TrEMBL record:
This is histidine kinase. The lineage of its organism: Bacteria, Bacillati, Actinomycetota, Actinomycetes, Jiangellales. Its EC number is 2.7.13.3. It comes from Jiangella asiatica. It catalyses: ATP + protein L-histidine = ADP + protein N-phospho-L-histidine. Coiled coil: none annotated. Gene3D superfamilies: 1.20.5.1930, Histidine kinase-like ATPase, C-terminal domain. Keywords: ATP-binding, Kinase, Membrane, Nucleotide-binding, Phosphoprotein, Transferase, Transmembrane, Transmembrane helix, Two-component regulatory system. InterPro entries: HATPase_C_sf, Sensor_HK_TwoCompSys, Sig_transdc_His_kin_sub3_dim/P. SUPFAM superfamilies: ATPase domain of HSP90 chaperone/DNA topoisomerase II/histidine kinase. The chain crosses the membrane at residues 24-42, 54-71, 77-103, 110-131, 137-159. One of its GO terms (cellular component) is membrane.
């Protein structure tokens, strides 16, 4: 926390605040001003011709007050009160009293500064009763005293307000820098999560295709040569595509880019037939139903990409957990109504067996997060007809 003028008690370990070069220069200047003003006040007061002992004692006390200014930051209020009380009978302390009043106005709250100012005005009333001015009337000297005290106090308050403003702006700058650092770290964290979801959605689909075709070759080593060659071709093509997808994702890590980067092609609804055909080549029975309206209108790229990922992850989950069942992918909606994507498959017949293709168990969770970030909603579960359904609704502006 930033302080306008930290007290020594606020220092680390309760130690003293270390003086800067500026502090030494200001203290020396204040000492010189206190000496000059004190001597001028002393010369004016001594025109009343007090006893020599009083004159000497006045100079001694004034010198002690000027020296005490070196500790004015440590005890500003205490020294100001003592100087105001002693100033009722000592003339040479006027300069030190003025510096201490200014110090209190700078370093302490408004109430404390006003109280010290009133004490100095009362001290002036008593002083000019003891040492009347030979040139001015008592009222004139009183007005001069009040004007001087008010001017010094207001000046000190102005300096304090300016310091508070500067420190407030500095604290806001520090806070803004901290918030900016947190936003950057948050953005990095979100980008890592987005890339992780992207890798899961893309690579899990490709690798599941590899696993299906490799499993077919393992269980049918005596298959005709044409079938083996076709399966090997699919494995090679899927592996090549997986490496290509991985290369694109790694490119995102190396060179930050936005979701709308045109240098990196993004999946759209037009690529869903190709995605369904890949699954058919892996032995799945996939039907694609297009019920979109809007005269061939295209949804926003982010919405289309999200819908593609929903279908891709759902087909991957069917290959993992419900192999051999039929899958129906339905697209509905249009501009203004939103885009609805539904993937429905029959539950596998017979006892549930462990999936031959390992999974992370977070596919549907990742889909839910992706859809929510796109401003939509997703639900999944078993329908009354005995089907497993994944349904997502995404906003499609008119």
């Amino acid at each position: 926390m930033l302080l306008v003028d930290p007290d020594p008690a606020d220092a680390v370990g309760g130690g003293r605040v270390r003086r800067s070069v500026r502090d030494w220069v200001v203290d020396a200047l204040c000492f010189a001003i206190a000496v000059v003003v004190g001597l001028m006040s002393y010369d004016t007061a001594m025109r009343n011709d007090p006893p020599e002992m009083v004159q000497l004692l006045d100079l001694v006390v004034g010198a002690i007050a000027c020296v005490a200014l070196w500790w004015r930051r440590r005890w500003p209020v205490q020294l100001a009160v003592a100087a105001a009380i002693v100033g009722t009978v000592v003339a040479s302390i006027a300069g030190a009293t003025m510096i201490l009043l200014f110090t209190v106005a700078v370093h302490r709250r408004y109430v404390v500064a006003v109280a010290i100012a009133l004490l100095n005005v009362a001290s002036g009333l008593v002083f000019y009763g003891v040492y009347p001015d030979l040139d001015l009337s008592y009222r004139g000297m009183l007005a001069f005293t009040v004007l001087g005290v008010v001017a010094i106090t207001l000046w000190g308050m102005f300096v304090r307000a300016r310091r508070q403003l500067v420190l407030s702006l500095r604290e806001r700058a520090h806070q803004a820098e901290s918030e900016a650092a947190l936003r950057v770290e948050r953005a990095r964290h979100l980008e890592r999560e987005r890339i992780a979801r992207e890798m899961h959605d893309v690579l899990a689909h490709r690798i599941s295709l590899l696993s299906v075709h490799a499993g077919a070759l393992e269980y049918r080593p005596d298959a005709p040569g044409d079938d083996i060659a076709r399966a090997a071709s699919v494995i090679r093509s899927s592996a090549h595509q997986a490496l290509q997808d991985l290369r694109e994702i790694i490119g995102v890590l190396r060179a930050p880019s936005s979701d709308d980067d045109l240098d990196r092609p993004q999946p759209t609804l037009a690529q869903l037939p190709a995605l369904a055909e890949e699954s058919r080549q892996a032995g799945m029975r996939v039907s694609l139903v297009d019920e979109l309206t809007g005269d061939d209108a295209e949804p926003p790229p982010a919405v289309a990409r999200c819908a593609y990922r929903v279908v891709q992850e759902s087909l991957t989950n069917v290959r993992k957990h419900a192999r051999g069942t039929g899958v129906c992918v339905t697209l509905a909606g249009g501009p203004g109504d939103g885009l609805e994507v539904e993937i429905r498959n029959r539950l596998p017949v017979g006892s549930a067996t462990r999936s031959e293709i390992p999974g992370t168990g977070t596919g549907l969770i990742g889909l839910s997060e992706r859809v929510e970030l796109a401003g939509g909603r997703l639900d999944h579960g078993i329908t009354p007809d005995g089907d497993f359904r994944v349904r997502a609704w995404l906003p499609w502006p008119a």
